[in-house]
Specification:
This is Spermidine/putrescine import ATP-binding protein PotA. The chain has 368 residues and is an alpha+beta fold. The chain is built from 9 helices and 20 strands. Bound molecules: adenosine-5'-diphosphate and magnesium ion.
């Protein structure tokens, strides 16, 4: 366990009724003061994880710890956790001040104390002077900030945010991404943020948990996950990828497109079928005879910073290339890539399985 762990899930399984498990033996740790993102497609179990942390539901199996105390049965109102919901769940009949003060009034704090806390919280989210505004007179971004002020006014240890930016238009969403990230750093409170948008996750997080079908596929920093996707799901979900079938001949040597290439991967069986990922920006356009592969340019789009070029090799596989150089549709070109640009993945492997495999692999090697 890490020294700073604030929340720990230990083989948590969640079932609703008799349906298959929504979360399947999920284990993870959340460290104090960091920005975490749960990223995955709709229905993968993100909101369920937040509800378990908040205490709205109890796990079917497994344990949840907060500051190393088991909290499976601790009710929501006794946890130092506040949630910002997708629709903000503000009270339309109350003004900004009373929305933020709501929880403090329930706690029956003195008016002078409430006043100070509400003013401080509103100042934190840049809404000083808006105390008497009606909620319906506030823009989407301002409502978002009221919802956050209402969460931070309780001085929780953790703030949970369930897709809070998804209702905003693109420009405002980008602004709020900066704002939320900056706010989290100023407050130093642990944020657990939910999104299905990979760019949002990459931009905002210290750590990302990529989730699919009730399992954490991979966890790590944005660069870890982008550079070293663990399986096809992650490679496909995060950024754009070329995913090609291949064979791991032996350590550091992989075969695809009928050719063998040096790579930096190890720990597979010899001649094991694998999947290869090469990111579009790791492919360099060369003369046809100078590349590792020969392809024909099928189409291209200008994307502002780069060209997105779609090519086909002789076997009919599609190759996506991001290049600042323009290509010509119909041309034969070469594609060059470094050994480091090749990522080899075992079919459908999750992070847990990967860690076990590498562990037993290095034990085997050590024993020899
Ligand atoms: N109260 C519930 N009763 C039955 N099934 C539910 C309930 N809440 C969620 N589910 C199911 O659990 C799965 C995961 O839901 P959820 O955690 O909300 O996913 P996400 O937030 O990632 O979209 C979905 O298949 C959903 O239909
Ligand atoms: Mg959800």
């Amino acid at each position: 366990m890490k020294a700073n762990t604030i929340i720990r899930f230990e083989y948590v399984t969640q079932k609703y009724d008799d349906d298959p498990a929504v979360l399947d033996e999920v284990s993870f740790e959340i460290e104090r003061g960091k920005f975490y993102t749960l990223l995955g497609p709709s229905g993968c179990g993100k909101t369920t994880i937040l509800r378990l942390i908040a205490g709205f539901i109890e796990p079917t199996k497994g344990n949840i710890y907060m500051n190393e105390k088991k909290i499976n049965k601790v009710p929501a109102n006794q946890r130092q956790v506040n949630t910002v919901f997708q629709d903000y769940a503000l009270f339309p009949h109350l003004n900004v001040y009373e929305n933020v003060a709501f929880g403090l009034r329930i706690k029956k704090l003195k008016q002078a104390v409430i006043d100070k806390k509400v003013k401080d919280a509103l100042r934190f989210v840049n809404l000083s002077g808006y105390e008497n505004r009606e909620i319906r007179e506030m823009s989407g971004g301002q409502r978002q900030r009221v919802a956050i002020a209402r969460a931070i006014v309780n001085e929780p240890e953790i703030i949970l945010l369930d897709e809070p930016l998804s209702a905003l238009d693109l420009k405002l969403r980008t602004e709020m991404q900066y704002e939320l990230r900056e706010l989290q750093q100023r407050l130093g409170i642990t944020f657990v943020f939910v999104t299905h948008d990979q760019e949002e996750a990459l931009a905002m997080s210290d750590e990302i948990f990529v989730i699919n079908k009730g399992k954490i596929q991979q966890s790590g920093t944005p660069t870890d996950i982008y550079d070293e996707p663990i399986n096809r799901f992650v490679a496909d979900f995060i950024g754009e990828s070329n995913i090609i079938p291949g064979t791991m001949i032996k350590d550091f040597l992989v075969e695809f497109n009928g050719k063998q290439f040096e790579c930096v991967d190890q720990g597979f069986n010899n001649n094991e079928p694998v999947e290869i990922v090469i990111r579009p920006e790791d492919l360099e356009i060369t003369e046809p005879e100078k590349g590792n592969l020969r392809v024909r340019v099928d189409s291209q789009l200008f994307r502002g910073v780069h060209y997105e070029i779609c090519c086909y090799d002789e076997e009919g596989h599609e190759w996506l290339v991001h290049s600042t150089r323009k290509a010509n549709v119909g041309d034969q070109i070469g594609l060059y890539f470094d050994p480091e640009a090749i990522h080899v993945m075992r079919f459908g492997e999750t992070e847990e399985e990967y860690d076990k495999r590498l562990e037993s692999y290095s034990e085997d090697h050590y024993a020899k």
